[in-house]
C-alpha cells in the first residue's frame, strides 16, 4: 500500500521543502513600496472612467424617429379555425388466449444396439 502512495508522498515532500528555499532567495519589495503592492493590477482592472461612452440620457436624440426606421408590423389576420377532430372509438377488447397445454415430459431415447450388446460392468 505504501508503494501506491510513495510518488505522492515524495513529490509533496519535495514541494514543501522547496518553498522555504525559494522564499529565502526571492527578492523582497522595499519597505516604502509595501503599501503599493498590487496597485498596478487594481488600476488595470478598474480602468479609467473618462474613456467610458456617455450614458443613454446624455446622448442627443436620434435624427429620425424610430417609427420611420422600423414601422410597426401590420395586424395579423385571423386564420379560419379547423373543425374539431372526431373522437376515436375505444380499442376492441382483448381476446382471451386459451391456456397452455401441460408440459410434455421427455422420455429418454431407447438404448442403441451397441450399448445393449455391451456387457454391464460390475
Report on the structure:
The protein is mainly α and 122 residues long. It is 34% helix and 0% strand. The protein is built from four helices and no strands. The protein has helices at residues 2-25, 39-46, 66-69, 113-117. The longest helix is centred in the first third of the chain and has 24 residues, at 2-25. Residues 49-122 are annotated as: Disordered. Residues 70-112 have a biased composition (Pro residues). Residues 1-23 form the signal peptide. Keywords: Signal. Residues 49-60 have a biased composition (Basic and acidic residues).
Secondary-structure map:
Elements: H1 2-25, H2 39-46, H3 66-69, H4 113-117
Largest sheet: none
How much helix is in the residues?
25-40%
Termini separation comes to: 59 Å
E-strand count: 0
Number of helices: 4
Per DSSP, what share of the residues sits in E-state strands of 2 or more residues?
Answer: under 5%
Q: SSE order in H/E notation?
A: HHHH
Provide mean pLDDT, rounded.
76
Structure classification: mainly alpha
Amino acid at each position: 500500500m505504501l508503494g501506491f502512495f510513495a510518488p505522492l508522498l515524495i513529490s509533496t515532500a519535495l514541494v514543501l521543502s522547496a518553498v522555504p528555499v525559494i522564499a529565502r532567495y526571492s527578492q523582497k519589495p522595499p519597505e516604502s513600496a509595501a503599501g503599493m503592492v498590487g496597485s498596478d493590477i487594481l488600476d488595470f482592472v478598474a480602468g479609467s472612467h473618462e474613456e467610458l461612452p456617455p450614458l443613454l440620457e446624455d446622448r442627443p436624440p436620434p435624427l429620425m424617429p424610430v417609427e420611420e426606421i422600423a414601422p410597426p408590423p401590420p395586424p395579423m389576420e385571423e386564420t379560419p379555425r379547423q373543425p374539431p377532430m372526431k373522437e376515436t372509438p375505444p380499442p376492441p377488447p382483448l381476446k382471451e388466449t386459451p391456456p397452455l397445454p401441460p408440459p410434455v415430459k421427455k422420455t429418454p431415447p431407447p438404448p442403441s444396439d451397441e450399448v445393449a450388446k455391451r456387457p454391464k460392468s460390475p
